[in-house]
Amino acid sequence: MVRQGGIVWNVGALQAWLKKYAELQSLLLLRAQMLSGAPSRGTELTAMTYRNTQTRPTRNLVVLGKHVSLLCQYLKTTALTGKDKLIPHALDAITSDILVQDLALARPFAEIAAKACFPDRPEVVDLYRNHVFVNFDRLFDSKDLSLIMSRHSLPIMHFGLTINSWRHIQTAWKRKLGCAVEDVIEMDREDNVEALQAGHSRSTENRVYGISVEALAGAAEDVLPAYLNASMEWQRHCQVPVSGQWASYKTARAHPPSSPPPPAAPPAPEPRENKQPVAYSMPAEAVQKAMVDAVVAKLPSTDEIATKVMDKLMPALKGMLQDMFQSTTGGPSERTDKGKGKEREREKEQEQGQSTSHGRAQSGISDRSPIWDHSDVELEQTDIHVQSAEPSTSGQSATLDQALQMMQGLLKNPSASWKSKEQHACMATVLKGETDLVAVLGTGAGKSMLAIIPSMVQPKEATVLVLPLNSLMLDYQRRLEEFRVPYQVYGTDKPLSSSTNLILVTADKALTPQWRSALAMLNQSKKVARLIFDEAHIPLMSKDYRMAFQSIHQLRSIPMQLVLLSATLPSWCMEEVKTTFQLVQQTEVIRQSTDRPELGYHLERVPVHSMARRVAEVLEEEGSLWEERDRALVFVTSIAAGQHLSHMTAYPFYNGDKGTSDEDRRWMYQQWIKGFSKVLIATTAFSAGNDYPHVRTVIHMDRPFDMVDYIQGQGRADHGAGRGGQMGDL
């Protein structure tokens, strides 16, 4: 609006526009990385400028003929030579057009919006004025670029690409597709007599002498078309309008990619007696034809393949016909039992054959390996398909019934049922495994069963449970040992075992290269079906001081289902959750009310100097009403406050300070669980790490840091006991 002759901006609307503009910038950054030829270095790409500045006199955005290009300068030899190279990457036609329109039309308004939204931060306005890609109030970085790549590749590939993985994959594709221009680059490296007579190398001659005004310092003029050709060749393989193509969007979408005639190739180097001539690479079609001919020559004849397939198929067909005949004629049960035993033996042999096949694939198949061995795997897949041809609803219902029976056995309650329709729906989604899941269930609503039961119902699939707190690890180990459910805890000193289906791992370890390697090795012998992250709200709140959580999107290192569990994820943060964890677009969100009407709340205003004494008095009053199994928790907001209260009351103080070892924390937790000390003093980190069902009193001494900590703390009271609990705030 205009007020008193001046423009008054709606800052909230401008900030929303800048965030949408950052999404456009992220898409342009993604296309520049993946469609302009060989991938650039992430750190350099995200910091490129489109203006010359005092500190950076050579801008990164240039137009070479008809090609809008980004100039990279980094080489691994830069530190040795002390000089940068200018290496152009030609942008595809669509990216070029949108980027030009962006900088000409949208960017001036973005500068105005940034000045209105950040009046005290002129450096933000400078970002919009000088840099090609801007992420709201800062530049993008390599982690942002990896996150963008993962977000858009995950729904298609079921695997999140990152800068590192894309560099390997693109190089392999480029090698197979014949996009290399090593022969042209080699021209710049070879010396000739004329250059040596002039007292310099040929690279110096190409870079300094007899060049046109369009040449770039640091690269021979005749070599520049080779860089542009490499970008265009990659764009043709990606089937996008190539750089330099002038066409309407309608024409570009209706016709296959084409390009203007490539620049004339430089002359071939003169042959020399004391040097081998430059070897030019074979055309891609010739290489592919040679590879196909070599493979076909090693294939056995169709008669040999048919004979081998029938040899493998006949025993299975005979067994199926015998079983069918016995079931039709009502044969004795003894024969049927033997048939089942043989079937189990055959399944066992198939499993062993699968693991042997994986091991052979890992070590490489030799030339002597018969090519028809793969028919075994195809037959197994066909058998599985036939067996699962029943209606999916009946099969899923039977699996859910089996899951309920397992849960009844763990709880030692034959009449136990699903705690809610939401828990039932979550279990169905987890066991089906077709999409990601965010389960927001109240405290005591059976979230942990979503991780435990699938590992028992589906013995041929592994389940990974990621725990962000050490206290959670202790609590899960306690419950699994009570349930007598086999599990393994990941450690860097030993590989993962395929004999145990449930794997516990801390969140920090689950983001390390060692874990990803161990998980990939396990997946070769047993399918890893799902990864379940408990207390999924923690990475959203802790990524500012727990650096590992900034890379939480890297959890899915292999194709598998992601399941997020929490009792404190508000609906407004679902999009942030999906982005942070890189969930698929069809992610299912199942939510139930987390109200706790059985809890009672008491609020007291107490002077700071008498707060610890009042806590001791409340514990003494409440303790007189407790039963043997009842416990209490006191949450403090600082290490000093917890130590002071512990010295006054002699109750153990559970905390994450470096001075407290893991053994000490485990000992204090066990003392509290076993009732040697019915009260445990703890920092707020313990609020999400305990599911003991008989906590009768929870006290927050002093004001919690935020509402999530408070809700997590009050959720510990009466966890599944059904007798009510007391909440105290001092």
Automatic annotation (TrEMBL):
Start and end residues of each stretch annotated as Disordered: 250-275, 324-370
Database matches in PROSITE patterns: HELICASE_ATP_BIND_1, HELICASE_CTER
Gene Ontology CC annotations of this record: chromosome; cytoplasm
Coiled coil: none
Swiss-Prot/TrEMBL keywords: ATP-binding, Nucleotide-binding
Catalytic activity entry: Couples ATP hydrolysis with the unwinding of duplex DNA by translocating in the 3'-5' direction
Record's compositionally biased regions (Pro residues): 257-269
Pfam families xrefs: DEAD, Helicase_C
Biased composition, class Basic and acidic residues, residue ranges: 334-351
Gene Ontology process terms (BP): double-strand break repair via homologous recombination
SMART domains: DEXDc (SM00487), HELICc (SM00490)
Limits of the Helicase C-terminal domain: 611-730
Every Helicase ATP-binding domain range: 428-587
Taxonomy, superkingdom: Eukaryota
Biased composition (Polar residues): 355-366
Entry annotated with the keyword Nucleotide-binding: yes
The enzyme's E.C. designation: 5.6.2.4
GO terms of molecular function: 3'-5' DNA helicase activity; ATP binding; four-way junction helicase activity; nucleic acid binding
Entry annotated with the keyword ATP-binding: yes
PANTHER family: DNA HELICASE RECQ FAMILY MEMBER, RECQ HELICASE, PUTATIVE (AFU_ORTHOLOGUE AFUA_6G14720)-RELATED
Family according to the record: Belongs to the helicase family. RecQ subfamily.
Protein name: DNA 3'-5' helicase
Species this chain originates from: Pisolithus tinctorius Marx 270
